[in-house]
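Raw record, unedited: DNA-binding FadR family transcriptional regulator
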Amino acid sequence: MMNTPITKRSLADEVANQIKAYIRSGHYVAGQRLPTEPELMKQYGVGRSSIREAVRMLANSGLLRVQQGLGTFINEFVEDNETLHQRLNRAAAKDIDEVRQLLEVKIAQKAALNRTQQQLDEIEGFLNERIQAAHQAKIEECIQADINFHVSIARAAGNEILADMYAAFSSRLKSWFLQIHSDTSSFIQTNDLHKSLFLSIRDGNEEQALRFAREILRH
């Protein structure tokens, strides 16, 4: 019987599975630095390309995180059936924000079609809070009002799943926004755009809502 050659991909899979087993067993713990590539090559008896592919797969799955210049570290182990909220808790803020922005344009478009008067009142209320806090240089209040403004637009879009997803992503960004915004100047600069977005949603102008949502993301 002929033996099937072991490919580099299957070697990488095997190494990834063994590292995963080490994490499950507690041999590797959260925050621990993974051994270096030469050490892993020696430990598993495979080449550098297989080690790198295994690390890449585990990093993509969230079990490892690669920090440039520092090494590769173990993330907290989670079971395969983790919830979205659990996954977001260990995600990088910039990745969460990227997904939030992808949702935002579609949300604005749908809100212009599906909003109710009660939802418009809520959106306008958060808009006014955002504007007031921005001019009063209250950065934390301004960020919270901004998040509430966009979440209320998501609720007005008329799709509960889309709204829940957007709210889940947005709720985890406040601390990151506080790190990247030292004052409210950028919020003041976009107050008019946010007001225009609200007016386009109020007027049911789908095309304008789409345009202003994109303009806001460019800022």
